Amino acid sequence: MVIRETCPACGAPRYKKNGHTRHGKQHHPCKVCRRQCTANALDQSIPHEQRRQIEHLLCERISLRGICRTVGVSLTWLLHFLVECSTACPAHLHTQLPARPAEGRISRREAEADAMWSFVQKKANTQWIWIAMDATTRQIIAFHVGDRSRTSGKERWANIPMVYREQATFHTDQYEVYKGGIPAEQHHAITKKARKTNHIERFNTTLRQRVSRLVRETLSFSTKVANHIGAITYFICYYNLTKAALPV
């Protein structure tokens, strides 16, 4: 418990009563700067060890309210912390890019591409997750959240690192939209029996099992697209960091 004798913003000792907070605490607005605060404030700083634990829990199939009950933090704080974590994620998703081949040497890599269904707020608001994976390292090299149109396929292609767009062959299923999102000379549309997309399909299952808001029948769904993308970005960065280094 911290008993304030001065305003935390300007340091003035002059404040008065002005209603209550939603938790029933007395509001005290400062007479100088008009900043509102409570006279008796709780020290709600979260220690570093507890933050590290929450970072790991965010990558497991646990709802946000479940994390709040387990760790003992407020939902408001956890939502802000999730935004903070997702904002800190790099654009390259911690992907370890392969080295460019020497002159005169052709190095063709293999990648897999797929899209999985999800929704935000209600199932009518469908959000497809377009994913591209390195077939050798199993790292996610790019993703895009949007509709199931050729435009979203092109957006996913634009997010793929240049080294893959120049060198890699992409294996997909036979969905027609892929033909416009990947150059024809680098695109191989295959059947299920060819087993060239089994790694990315397995990752789709991992994503659904580890991110609670992607479960088909769930109460942990996203209510904002930005939070939806942020949670997926955070998990993919964590997933890529757990993968072994690229072979030399």
Q: Overall pLDDT, averaged? A: 86
CATH superfamily of the largest domain: Ribonuclease H-like superfamily/Ribonuclease H
- The N- to C-terminal Cα distance equals 56 Å
Which residue ranges are poorly predicted, with pLDDT under 50 across at least 5 consecutive positions?
none
Biggest β-sheet: strands ordered side by side in the sheet = 9-8-5-10-11
Please provide the count of β strands.
11
CA-based shape: elongated
The level-1 CATH class of the largest domain: Alpha Beta
* Total helical elements: 8
Radius of gyration equals: 24 Å
The CATH topology of the largest domain comes to: Nucleotidyltransferase, domain 5
CATH architecture of the largest domain: 2-Layer Sandwich
SS class: alpha+beta
Note the main sheet: 5 strands, mixed
H-E order: EEEEHHHEEEEEHHEHEHH
The number of distinct structural domains comes to 3
Q: What's the helical proportion of residues?
A: 25-40%
Strand content: 15-25%
SSE blueprint and pairings:
Elements lengths: L1 E2 L23 E3 L6 E3 L1 E2 L6 H10 L6 H8 L3 H13 L21 E8 L2 E2 L1 E5 L1 E7 L5 E7 L3 H10 L2 H6 E5 L5 H4 L5 E3 L8 H13 L14 H17 L7
Parallel strand pairs: 5-10, 10-11
Antiparallel strand pairs: 1-4, 2-3, 5-8, 6-7, 8-9
Helix pairs in contact: 3-8
